[in-house]
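Lab meeting tomorrow. Look over both lines:
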Amino acid sequence: MKAVKKSNSKTKTKKENLVLGKSETKAIKASDTKSIKPSETKKLGVSATRSKKIKHTYKVKDPENSLLLKLKDGDVVIEMFPEDAPNHVSRIKELVRAGFYNGLKFHRVIDGFMAQTGCPYGTGTGGSGKKLKAEFNKRPHKRGTVSMARAMMPDSADSQFFICFGDCDWLNGQYTVWGEVTSGMEYVDNIKKGDGPNGAVSAPDEIISMQVIADIG
């Protein structure tokens, strides 16, 4: 993913672009990806009492549409937006429930911009094997926003996503925003930053685990 540098008259800031050029991508055979069929996933039930307790513990509006992301320094809660990106939220939950994200690396991390993960190869070249039709919405890219990375074509998002460290309004309307960090952003800030080309990270931090909060119990 190439970085696009922009600047304004007041300060020199990097405004990065999350689009992959064709030369930076590679074809992935279905057998090489962690493809997950909806029929292979399982929605775990939880009692009304337990759900209420979980909701209170993590202070989320809807446990079924909230994620617990465990990082090396602490727990991060992400509340999702099924009303704005229903297909993305549904697919993310399928992948989370299948354990797809557990152990994946934050392969591209740019200080002041974002931390990107979701590639099974840890290189930014892979995915789950299922492309998603874009669900661009009016949600802004701001500190804590969780949005999907994609290639040049709008309908090319798969499993890779990024969390914004700060406001990134130049991304608005170009990437599908599907969630927001509501607690634990300080742990996201501690994700190891990249110093390689385009934010590539040497010995990157990993996702310890991701769970749908309604499934915890």
Notes: Residues 91 and 208 are 20 Å apart (CA to CA). The first strand starts at residue 19 and ends at 20. Residues 1-14, 20-34, 38-43 have pLDDT under 50 and may be disordered. The radius of gyration is 17 Å.
